[in-house]
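Exam prep: given the inputs below (a chain plus tryptophan), describe the expected output before reading on.
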Amino acid sequence: MEYSAEAPRRVLTGITTTGTPHLGNYVGAIRPAIAAAAAGERESFFFLADYHALIKCSDPDQVQRSTLEIAATWLALGLDTQKSVFYRQSDIPEIPELTWILNCSAAKGLMNRAHAYKAAVQANEEAGEDPDFAVTMGLFSYPVLMAADILMFRAHDIPVGRDQIQHVEMARDIAQRFNHNFAELFVLPEAVVDDDAAVLQGLDGRKMSKSYNNTIPLFDTEKRLRKAVNKVRTNLLEPGEPKDPDSSTVFQLWCAFADADGVAYMRNAFAEGIAWGEAKKQLFERINDELQGPRQEYERLMADPGHIESVLRAGAGRAREYSVPLMAKVRDAVGIRALT
Ligand code: TRP
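Solution:
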């Protein structure tokens, strides 16, 4: 398990367990991650970041529910848990242990510059509140927990959204400091931002995001999926009037689910003036074709949390084959040692 130059580059990413995955999460993150893991050229680690969820969410049932939903989603979509290591953060006691040790070498000044913390302080200042109003230590030191997630598994490549690049850079900084002060134990990670990954538009044409309330559900009922697709914003052009695909959310969604021939087909249909109702009907059918098998599997899994629990525990067992030995070295390196 020693790192060597020939070792495959290891990929690791975490999913915070708040909320229910939507179509934008699927197209932008989950589908490409599962496809990359299936291609099997690299070791992939995927985990449910439930300790991170506590920073944003103080509803225990919601944290638990979201953990179940996200695990069921990844499994229903075909994540191969033999090829990748799939686990729940809180099943790895070495992560909080490493977090503390990293806390002791991470500079407070570095954390002061974290975007999420700075945004909270700024919002407080604008509202005339104390700058630290409602800012928890969890929010403030969150990048250190994230550094522990990454450094624990000596991951090289961290696929993340743009908002997380800074956190990966902080992990790198923290690793460098530790390696310099104690022992060369950590790999220096890099953020990987996929510029080609589709950023899916939501119902109103803005980026699909829970915070804009414009999402299309991933695994709700077929009926609700159809309803949501029907709500995608269009313009007032009548059937028979040519429509511009490149400014259309319907077309953009179509492209996320169609191959090259399908894209050419719909481009042509727009030029020929396909009615919005018809375009949406076809869009719904295309999405539903891709999702109906996984949806059934999702429902089956959601009804069997015991199975998911056992999959996650097995994943944690595999993850700990890495974390336990590394943690032993970290403890030794900082002087947490037996006295004999
Ligand atoms: N903070 C990330 C997010 O909100 C989730 C996350 C937690 C993560 N730990 C990680 C991502 C480690 C990559 C690597 O999206």
